[in-house]
Sequence to fold (612 residues):
Amino acid sequence: MQKKTIFWGVLAVVALAFPLVIRSPYYQHLVIISLMWVIIGSSWNLLAGYTGQVSFGHAIFFGVGAYTAGLFPIHLGLSAWWGMLTGGIVSMLVALFVGWVCFRLRGPYFALATLAGGEIVRLIATNWESLTEGMVGILIIQTFKSKLPYYYIVLVLAVACILVIERIMKSKWGYYFVSIREDQDAAESMGINTTLYKNISLLVSAFFTGMAGAFYMNYMAFIDPEVVFSLHFISIMAILVGIVGGVATIWGPAVGAFIMVGLQETFRSSFFGLAPKWISQAHALAFGLLVIFVIMYLPNGIVGDWATIKRLVFRTRRTAG
Amino acid sequence: MDVFIQTIVSGILIGGIYSMIGIGMTLIMGVMGIINLAHGQLMMVAMYITFVMAHFFHVDPYLSLLVAMPALFLLGAFIQKTLLNPLIKVESILPENQVLMTVGIGMVLTEIARFIFSSDYKTVKTSYSSSAIFIGKISFNVPMCIAFGFALFFTALLFWFLLKTDLGRSIRATAQDSEAATLMGINSSRITVITFGIGSALVAAAGVLLMPIFYLFPDIGGAFTLKAFVITILGGLGSTVGAIVGGIVLGVAESLGATYIGMGYKEMVGFVIFVLVLIFLPGGLKRLTKI
Fold:
């Protein structure tokens, strides 16, 4: 058997068996959240890493997905699981409008326009109390007590998201996306409808992020605008997951998601109770320092610069031995 | 009618401060072609300097301009020299890595402030904080008038600097075409360092002037970064005159929004203007004035 097949086989078995072996709800929760970030990070990467449109507003799609799910029990008396069917679609509708406005701009201005978009949506969700309950938030009752069903749902979503993105990147669309990133004017002159393909990239990205949002609503059972539309904890976190793992790599965001959630939790729990309490306040500081470090020394992320890392580690080992 | 005039007056007064924030951003934007997403956070640092000066050394907030502006000039120059300039040489897929870097810097500054001062709201109270002059039925808040005066002064100073001095001309040359400027013997990486310093010093002045009328907490920077770039987009990227007009327009619009729509939507007014400008007037006010 090939080495690759064995690797994927082992990974699949580990992924499927994980919640059956590790029974601690705490670790199961961490992995569920990490997998959710795999989805958001990968979708961000499709738009930013592959298509070159760096979005600072993925909280728009995450929050819209979450609120779509949350509004079913509030206004229609239906289960929030309906959101899993509709959250992605509604996010796509919102993305159509976002794309219409923001794709008039390029580069950093696009980034800033999406950032403003995220803040606008957050303020609407905060102030439109008759629809969203405002700052009170939406509280529902979790369907399952055990974390197992949630784990498998989010695992399926994450795998589907990565497979879809991999398929897209191997298709003609993928080449169009990369050509837009490399040189938009050249792509346009080669006859690629850049606006159309940027929008396609955005729609796919918004769909999966919206699904992640709808999942978040069902899993956490509580949302408010400050959480799901947060600039720092959603939009910027999505960027961090992408750049730490590696932009424009299929597996980069997946690796980044586990690192970032792990790092956040390590700090939040003060290195699992080993370090003094004040460390727990430093997690955002650590994020900031990590961003600076990664941009300076690993501009293509951990997966993108894996060869460099391996070489450095190898060299230090050899000198040590 | 009185309410309306009052709203316009306070909008213009706060707009003067906004202009200063916007000018700093637009200068950096013009010379380096990047948007500095740590701009509001730099202002927050200046505000904490003012707070420390007033609280521990009992220095009048306006005197701490003399400390905060040089300090922020150095901080800005340091950031540009050690963190942003080296990035030009780093090969990366995303061209926006300098912008992402400023996000990281902003986070670090915010968290350091939270570490030292905790998340509590701080204020600097002065004897004149809530005094006002009345002309007819319209009140002019004294600290806001002082701030407006300072804003005019610094803007005039900046214009003199940009138009009349050698260094100012070099900055404008670099903004127009950095390669041509380099060929003319301008050390453009030194110019970027100085420009970032000046931009930071201007936003520091805005922070100091806001301190007597505003409150302070570590996360305040984010909101002002957003305002700064709304102003820059509104005024036209890289346009100093545009930033002044943009700042006043934003101040008046926010003030009108707070009075006639509701306090909750005050923040949103700026963003709505922002989106409208993008749709109907891409390029901002610069397109109308050509300056």
In short: Strands of chain B lie at 132-135, 138-141. Chain B has a mean pLDDT of 84. Chain B touches chain A through 46 residues (CB under 8 Å). Chain B has one domain: 2-289.
